[in-house]
Amino acid sequence: MEGALKLWIVIVAVGVLNYLSRMSFIAFFARRAMPPMLERALRYVPAAMLAALIVPRIVAALVAGVVAWSTRSTLKTLVAGMVALWLLQWGVPPAHL
Amino acid sequence: MTTPRHRAGRVLASEDFRAGFVEMLPVCIGVVPFGLVCGVGAAAAGANFAGAMGLATIIFSGAAQILACQMLADGAPVAVVILTCSVLGLRFLMYSAAMAPILSPLPRRWSGAVAFLLTDQAFAAAIRKYDAHGDARRAALHYTGSGMALWTFWQVTNAAGFYVGNVIPAAWSLEFAVPLCFLALLAPALRSAPHVLAAVVAGVAVMALDALPMRLNLVVAGVLGIVAGLAVEMAEARWKAR
Fold first, then answer.
1. What is the ipTM of this complex?
2. pLDDT tens across A6-46, in order?
3. Would you call B72 and A6 a contact, using CB atoms and an 8 Å cutoff?
4. Phi/psi zone of residue B75: left (φ > 0), alpha (ψ -120 to 50 degrees), beta?
């Protein structure tokens, strides 16, 4: 049950860290203003992190689209799209293949 | 002399608490697909029911839950998963600072407790309410109600998603919904040119840094995107000041 243990370590650690973030200014620094630089930087967290998570998939789809359009071959499109996704996402093909 | 129990009863009976709870229900309907996807994602990553509900009850943040499941399923080390999810959770610092004046009328212990209910949606609703009538005490009660509504709904949808994920055929490709959820979150985050640039830099960096071990490219690319957005914003401000 190594996987379950890992999952629970992540749940507890991320849960605690998220709670500390949520509580920070409400409970700890209630009488303190946030450093302006930090405030500005934090506004970019959602855009940057979410883009890092999905851009490889979007680019892979675009690669497949270009190959489909230029070659009109189903096989080449599939191969190009999947290889692009693996390369962009993991650097290698998934282990179970 | 009011005992804590009486105080809690008064909160639950207050008009603002109930209004917050009820007004959050349409938003709750809106997050149903996201909650389902989180449950499906937990099931797909091999979590049992307790694990799936641990994610929903304790982390209580859809993007972080999905990210944690995906990274663990990919075999990323626990420390890197925690680091990446925590950077994603840094946005709560921003919400926390904005919520602090609204929750200031509450007793310290109580505001510390309801801080746990802070989410993108509850934050947006509370700020709207506070801007509308400027009464922090009423806005705090309203926020407590809306936060509890969302938390409760979140548990139900995650549990439903977990069972759905275990039952429905693989041919439905529900895992395709995961990037769609992130895409739906990303679109409103691209509010200005510096935000778009932050996303572009993060997107390019995550691919360029693909060779980094342990999927560290995610968090490094995210930080690079944040720095890029901030740098452009400051350059822009300096340009305008001239």
1. 0.83
2. 999 999 999 999 999 999 988 887 777 778 888 888 889 88
3. yes
4. left
Backbone angles phi, psi at B107, to 5 degrees: -60, 145
Among candidates A27, A47, A59 on the partner chain, residue whose Cβ is nearest the Cβ of B225: A47
Cα–Cα separations (whole angstroms), residue A7 to B48, B70, B179, B213: 10, 11, 21, 20
* pLDDT single digits (tens) A44-69: 988 898 898 888 778 877 877 788 88
Stretch 58-77 of chain A: residues touching chain B, C-beta under 8 Å: 58-59
Distance CA B193, CA A10 (A): 34
This prediction's pTM? 0.79
Of B96, B217, B226, the CB nearest to A48: B226
Q: Give the angle subtended at the CA of B195 by the CAs of B78 and A30, to the nearest 5°.
A: 70
CB contact B218 to A (< 8 Å): yes
Nearest residue to B47 (alpha-carbon basis) of B132, B128, B163, B153? B163
- Domain residue limits, chain B: 4-186, 190-242
CB pairs under 8 A between A and B: 223
- Token couple for B45: 């990553």
**Best CA proximity match to B139, nearest among B94, B108, B98:** B98
- Residue B57 CA to residue B31 CA, distance in Å, equals 15
